[in-house]
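Lab meeting, item 3. Inverse folding demo.
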């Protein structure tokens, strides 16, 4: 049966790319243009670099790349093994960025304990741990040649669910981090509530929320349009015209 790439899915993929680009620009603008907000003035240049790397790695490296890995199965042509290979590699890159992003946050002179006090930090560790376990289970379940096919069929729905859940959890964790950081800066008087930096951070939060919704919707949407659904769509179009 012939399959036709659906227009709604193409639109979702396009909006996902535009949203991801917007998020990347906003986080880079915040990290580079307003980098003084990430660390006290008396700290060293090395601590400043690590503090700036944290949001960049966690947003671009972890969230955006893992979102692209989820969308691979929606747009990439070729065999299933090719799609699984690209998906696995992108998720591996995202996991590496997430681990290094957390390490940069805990690299400061205050140590690990001083940074492990907020809901954001707890959620971040849980999220990266779930992501790592999900990546390992996916690798063993779908690439180990000794696995029985029935086991892979049973694991697949849970793999998809946990993948989308972990991605959503990563976005929520980033939102709590943005809220925590911006509230702290505004309480100290370093950032005005209606200032440019506040608008950038709030825009970044809205962009992440929009992106996560588009990625999840694209992931669960039908990839192809069958001839029957195309006929129904054409008939409906003729009736409305």
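The presenter then showed the designed sequence:
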């Amino acid at each position: 049966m012939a399959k036709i790439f659906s227009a709604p899915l193409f639109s979702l993929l396009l909006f996902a790319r535009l949203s991801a680009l917007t998020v990347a620009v906003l986080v880079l603008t915040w990290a580079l243009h307003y980098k003084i907000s990430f660390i006290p003035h008396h700290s060293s240049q090395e601590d400043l670099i690590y503090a700036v790397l944290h949001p960049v790695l966690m947003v671009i490296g972890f969230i955006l790349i893992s979102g692209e890995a989820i969308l691979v199965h929606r747009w990439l042509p070729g065999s299933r093994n090719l799609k699984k290979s690209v998906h696995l590699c992108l998720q591996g890159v995202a996991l590496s960025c997430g681990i290094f992003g957390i390490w940069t946050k805990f690299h400061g002179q205050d140590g690990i304990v001083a940074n492990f006090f907020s809901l954001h930090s707890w959620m971040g560790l849980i999220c990266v741990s779930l992501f790592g376990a999900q990546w390992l289970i996916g690798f063993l379940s779908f690439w180990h040649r000794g696995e029985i096919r029935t086991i892979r069929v049973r694991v697949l729905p849970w793999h998809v669910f946990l993948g989308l859940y972990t991605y959503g959890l990563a976005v929520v964790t980033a939102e709590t981090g943005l809220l925590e950081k911006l509230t702290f800066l505004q309480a100290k008087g370093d950032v005005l509530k209606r200032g440019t930096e506040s608008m950038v951070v709030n825009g970044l939060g809205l962009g992440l929320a929009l992106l996560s919704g588009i990625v999840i919707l694209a992931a669960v949407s039908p990839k192809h349009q069958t001839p029957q659904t195309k006929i129904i769509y054409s008939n409906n179009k003729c009736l409305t015209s």
